[in-house]
Backbone:
């Protein structure tokens, strides 16, 4: 199946400058955070700590205890990266801090850190997810970097739409099934529509 790149909108110089400024702030925040804390190799525990689940947390009956335990074992997404799709396009998506891997998860209560370690930038990962949900699925989430009840509900809707286990956790299966908005570094522009090229 061939992937067709949609026509791109023209961006004004002001929009390009705004995107460049936002990117510079994000890079600066990650760099500042990295300089304040230990390296991820030194700070990362051998096994991920069990996340604190708020008392009002209720999972869908579709999710089994084994699936929830497996999801909790994945590391928290603490960064975002542009995952190449082809020579021109990529997908901005949550990833593991200081890694090219996107095999991580985000779950209810991530606001932004899970566990005691404070490295990486999970609020950026959550914001990337929230922006994509708003554009590709028409949700009206506040892009606040907090994985609260509204973000969890939006992920559950996506999971139902794509016939996945409905647990409200953004993880590898949800990532691969979701529709994403593409970004071109060459032209510094966004696609007009969403697709699932993964």
Residues:
């Amino acid at each position: 199946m061939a992937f067709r790149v949609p026509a791109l909108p023209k961006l004004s110089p002001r929009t390009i400058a705004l995107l460049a400024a936002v990117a510079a702030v994000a890079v600066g925040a990650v760099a500042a955070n990295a300089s304040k804390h230990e390296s991820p190799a030194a700070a990362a525990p051998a096994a991920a700590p069990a996340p604190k689940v708020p008392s009002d947390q209720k999972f869908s009956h579709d999710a089994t205890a084994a699936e929830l335990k497996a999801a909790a074992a994945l590391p928290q997404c603490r960064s975002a990266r542009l995952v190449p799709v082809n020579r021109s396009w990529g997908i901005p998506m949550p990833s593991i801090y200081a890694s090219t891997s996107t095999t991580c998860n985000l779950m209810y209560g991530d606001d932004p850190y899970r566990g005691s370690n404070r490295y990486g930038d999970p609020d950026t990962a959550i914001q990337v997810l929230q922006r994509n949900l708003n554009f590709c699925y028409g949700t009206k989430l506040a892009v606040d970097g907090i994985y609260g009840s509204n973000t969890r509900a939006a992920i559950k809707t996506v999971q139902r739409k794509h016939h996945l286990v409905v647990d409200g956790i953004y993880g590898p299966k949800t990532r691969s099934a979701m529709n994403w908005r593409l970004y071109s570094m060459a032209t510094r522009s966004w696609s007009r529509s969403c697709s699932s090229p993964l």
In short: Strands lie at 79-84, 90-95, 180-184, 189-195. The chain has six helices and four strands.
